[in-house]
Amino acid sequence: MRRIILSTESGADIPQDLADKYDVQVVPMHVIMDGKDYLDGSLPVKDIYDYYERTKKIPSTTSTNSHEYQGFFTKIKEDYPDCIIVHIGYTSKASSSFHNATIAAENFEDLFLIDALNVTGGLTAIVMYAVNLLEKEPTIAPATLVEKIEAIIPKSRLAFVPGSLDFLKAGGRVSNVAYLGGILLKIKPRIELIEGNLVSTKKYRGKMSGVIEKLMQDYLNQYDIDREQLYLQYSIGLDESIKRRMDEIAKINGFKNVIWIQAGAMISTHAGPGGFGIAGLEV
C-alpha cells in the first residue's frame, strides 16, 4: 500500500507538534524585513513587532515560489519513496503560492493539489480533517480523499479580530480616516474568509476582552460547528485571562477538544500583536 503524505504552507500556522505527529510537511512562505528575506518560521515573531516599534512600518510577505516547491516536493519524494502527495494550499485569492505550486506540480506524478481557500486556523482545520480521515481509513483511495477534502472546504469557517489597527494601517489595509475613527471609537473589525477572500463583515466596539467574547458568541450562533474540535488562534500579546475565558466558553458550548494556534511571522505581520481568531468545521 502506497503512503499518502499531506503537505501545506507555513501560513496554516499548524502547531509543530501536530505536524511532527502526523508527518504533515510544511513549506515556508517568506517575510521580508530590513531588506532581508526570512523563511517563515525562522524569524521570531517578536522581531516583527520590534521592527514596527522602531520604524512604524511592517515587513512585507511573499509566497513560496515554484522553484522552492520543486525542491519541497522532491524532498518529500526522497524521504517517503513511492508516496502520494496531497498538498492542501493557502488560499489562491490572497497569495500566488498555490499558483506556484501548480507550476511545480507539472514535474511530478502522484501529486494532488487542493486550494483550501483559507488561511491560518481555517487551513489547519482542513489539514487536520484530512489527517483524521487518513487515520480512520488508511487504505482510502487518493482520489476519494481529495474529493472528501474538497467537499469540506466550504464548511471551514474562520473569523478573527486583529489586535492592532496600527498594523492594518501600516500595511495599507485601512485608510487614515477609518484608522482614526477606529482608534477614537475603539472599533475592531471582524474579518472572515469568504470564498477565499478576506472580508470585513462586522465591527465591534469596546475593550479587546469584550470584543473577543462577542466575536466568539456571534461565531457560535452563526455557524453550527462540529463540537469535536475547535481551533483558537492568537498572536503574541493576547492577555492570558482572555485565553482562559475563551476556554471556558468553548467548554460551556460543548467542545470536546480545543487547540490553540499561535500565529507565525507571516500571519502576525498582517494581524499585529494581541489578535484573536476562531476556526472550525460546520457539521
Brief write-up:
The protein has 283 residues and is an alpha/beta fold. It folds into two domains: 4-31 and 62-152, 3-Layer(aba) Sandwich (Rossmann fold); 156-281, Hypothetical Protein Tm841, Chain: A,domain 3 (2-Layer Sandwich), CATH 3.30.1180. It has eleven helices and 13 strands.
Describe the 3D structure.
The chain is of the alpha/beta class and 283 residues long. It has 2 domains: 4-31 and 62-152, Rossmann fold, CATH 3.40.50; 156-281, Hypothetical Protein Tm841, Chain: A,domain 3. The chain is 42% helix and 25% strand. The chain contains 11 helices and 13 strands. It has helices at residues 16-21, 45-55, 66-79, 97-105, 120-136, 142-152, 165-170, 176-185, 208-222, 240-252, 265-271, and strands spanning 4-9, 25-27, 30-33, 36-39, 60-62, 84-89, 111-115, 156-161, 187-194, 197-205, 230-234, 258-262, 276-281. The strands form 3 sheets. It has a 6-stranded mixed β-sheet with strand order 10-9-8-13-11-12, with helices on both faces. Strand 3 and strand 4 (36-39) form a beta hairpin. Helix 3 packs across helix 4 (97-105), helix 5 (120-136) packs antiparallel against helix 6 and helix 9 runs parallel beside helix 10 (240-252). It is globular and about 55 Å long. The protein starts with a strand and ends with a strand.
Uncertain parts: 171-185
According to DSSP, the number of beta strands is 13
Query: Widest sheet: strand order?
Result: 10-9-8-13-11-12
Text of the CATH class of the largest domain: Alpha Beta
The H-and-E topology, N to C, reads as EHEEEHEHEHEHHEHHEEHEHEHE
The CATH architecture of the largest domain comes to 2-Layer Sandwich
Radius of gyration: 19 Å
Task: Please give the alpha-carbon distance between the first and last residues.
Answer: 31 Å
CATH topology-level fold name of the largest domain: Hypothetical Protein Tm841, Chain: A,domain 3
| Strand content bin | 15-25%
Secondary-structure-based class equals: alpha/beta
